[in-house]
Amino acid sequence: RRSADPLKALLAQLLAKLETTGEFQAADAETYGAETSSEAAIAEEVAAVVEVIIGRDDRIRITNTRRSPWKRYCALRITLGGRSYVGTGCLVSPNTVLTAGHCVYMHGENKGWASEIEVFPGANGASRPFGSVKATSFRSVRGWVNGRRPEYDYGCIKLPNGAFSAHGLGHFGYAAFSRDVLLSRRAVLAGYPGDKPFGQLWGMSRRLKQVTSRQLRYDIDTMGGQSGAPVYIKCGGHRYLIGIHNYGSASGNTATRITPSVFKNIKKWSAE
Q: Within 10 Å of residue 80's Cβ, how many Cβ atoms?
């Protein structure tokens, strides 16, 4: 859609407004907050997961990827069985990238753990302001690896220690909020969609449509390649991840909700 579209311009202003505050701070125990910080063509969408545009496409391209929080978003180039895939992740510690389970462990014909994932933080089209690192160590949970259950479709990529330490990227905070808190605020979802050139970051903001015990559902537009994208809200002036995007349909796209148990796994992986 043309930038002159008044609704899209309004959405762009809203998204910009959402991103005017600074770094995270520690959240209190009640919200399970986490302390925080200090080119090639796309081959295929990861595991052929369907993600959709709902109604009109209201996504906005984000180009200021040297700034927070966008510099913490990571474009992923995934290799498994000689084939190439793409995905999205975000830094939750200096050496941990949170993403969808099917970005690190795939089911179906090309089943198994990724052999290698190249991580590009803050990618902006052909620009790689912070370079890239190749990782070969990954984590997920039994509910996904053994059970292939969508609500457990999350995992992480472990980076070599000090991989991006020279750039001061920082990392996201995350929290397990109550249903009422989650439904009362606008959620932001951005990632690296497969219908755009590799490395372009696109996103939008909207209230959640539904919150279940383990999933979030929303009418936020996504496309293949955005699997693993963080879903976050603002609370007390700070950003907190509340979900990991992984699936979509015309009835609403979905994320694995950060519950206390998911929170504990992310915290454990981040400490490794």
A: 20
Task: Check residue 159 and report its DSSP letter.
Answer: P
pLDDT digits (tens, 9 = 90+) for 202-248: 988 889 999 999 999 998 867 778 999 999 999 988 999 999 999 87
Q: What are phi and psi of 150, to 5 degrees?
A: -55, -35
In this predicted structure, the answer to whether residue 147 has a pLDDT above a threshold of 50 is yes
- Catalytic choice (93, 140, 227, 270): 227
Whether pLDDT at 29 is above 90: no
Residues 6+ apart with CB under 8 A from 18: 186, 188, 205, 234
Which of 178, 180, 183, 254 has the alpha carbon at shortest distance from 217?
A: 254
With bands split at pLDDT 50, 70 and 90, how would you rate the model's confidence at 150? very high
Report yes or no: 147 and 241 within 8 Å, Cβ to Cβ: no
**Cα distance between residue 246 and residue 140, in whole Å:** 14
- DSSP run (H or E) holding 265: helix 260-271
Catalytic residue list contains 102: yes
Asked whether 137 and 119 are in contact (CB, 8 A), the reply is no
Q: Which of 93, 102, 171, 245 is catalytic?
A: 102
Distance CA 163, CA 119 (A): 10
